[in-house]
Amino acid sequence: MRIRRAERGHFGDVKLLEDGVSEMRIDCGPGYRVYFAREGRMVYLLLCGGAKAAQPADIKHAKTMWAAIRKELS
Description:
The chain has two helices and four strands, in the order H-E-E-E-E-H. With 74 residues, the chain is α+β, with helices and mostly antiparallel strands.
C-alpha cells in the first residue's frame, strides 16, 4: 500500500537522512525501511530497503549507491 502511494507522490512517513538519501518508514512487521533519493522534481530512485535491525548498514549501502548513480549522471 505504501509503495502504491509513493508511486503517486504521497510518500507519507519520510525522514531526510543525509547525502540526498531519504528513508520511508513502513509501520508493518519488523519496522521496514525503504531508502530512496530524488533527482529534480520528478525522478525517484529506489536504492534499497530493509528492516530496522539492519538500518545502519542499509543506510550506508543506500548512500554508496546514490553517490555512484550521481557520479554516472554527471
